[in-house]
Design brief:
mainly alpha, MetI-like fold, 2 domains, 14 helices, 0% strand
């Protein structure tokens, strides 16, 4: 009887402790973002939302946000135009290429960011090529594992080769068959891959900061600079980041849940 009661409340206790461990820093950061002064006391001296106004009034906030958006959108477009056709071809027509892609997608995880950016500086630092373009291509390559795995799972469900070829037999072009037949059947996996790619590019810090030597200040670089000058405003920006990532996570959960329901039906 006692062992049964322990088995009942122990998992709940572990979940509660994990939730406190994960949510505690977020709650503390939010309280600090609305505090007037919080130094050497358990609770802040007062509460205010003025730091949110200070952050939005900072002339560097909007430009850094736009730079992050431009970088993320550019990476998403390159991922769509370059990786998507290759992954489709490898999954549908060339299993040997699929195996090579699978091993290639592991490389970004095996190379630390600081090592990668050092090699980029050595190889491309003196070339007459826009460094921003090299940065976009590099981050696109880093996003390959998440994008590949999302689409790889999507391509396992149906006979895409048969659907693709049947659409062409009915008079559709290869591009038309791909857009009208293939894309609608992989839209869930595609959306997951694109959202993960967008989030990775939007929040990238190490390579962008070192390779461009701070000349292209994204939102993440701006946040770290703000920490040295105004901790409260930096906490506001951190909370905004958490909200943004929370929205992305919510969308991903909804997409995966809807995909599971459609498979059951």
């Amino acid at each position: 009887m006692r062992a049964h009661s322990v088995d009942k409340w122990l998992p709940r206790l572990i979940i509660i402790l994990i939730a406190i461990f994960l949510l505690g820093p977020i709650v503390a950061t939010f309280i600090y973002s609305i505090s007037t002064v919080w130094v050497k006391t358990i609770l802040p001296s007062g509460l205010t939302f003025k730091w949110y106004g200070v952050l939005t009034a900072d002339p560097d906030f909007i430009p850094s946000t736009l730079r992050s958006l431009i970088l993320a959108v550019a990476v998403v477009l390159i991922t769509m135009l370059v990786f998507l056709p290759v992954i489709f071809y490898a999954n549908v027509y060339n299993p040997k290429l699929k195996e090579k892609l699978r091993y290639l997608s592991i490389l970004p995880y095996s190379i630390p960011g600081i090592v990668l950016v050092t090699g980029l500086v050595q190889l491309y630092g003196s070339l007459p090529v826009p460094k921003l373009l090299i940065l976009i291509l590099t981050i696109s390559a880093i996003c390959l594992p998440a994008f590949y795995q999302s689409l790889n799972n999507a391509f396992m469900g149906d006979d895409f080769q048969g659907m693709f070829e049947q659409a062409q037999l009915l008079g559709d072009s290869k591009l038309g068959a791909f857009v009208r037949v293939v894309l609608p059947n992989i839209r869930a996996g595609l959306m997951v891959g694109l959202l993960l790619t967008f989030t990775t590019a939007f929040t990238e810090y190490v390579i962008t900061n070192i390779f461009l030597t701070g000349q292209y200040e994204t939102l993440k670089i701006y946040m770290y600079r703000l920490m040295n000058t105004n901790g409260n405003a930096a906490s506001v920006l951190t909370i905004i980041f958490f909200i943004f990532l929370g929205i992305i996570a919510f969308i991903l959960i909804k997409i995966v849940s809807s995909q599971k329901r459609s498979v059951k039906e």
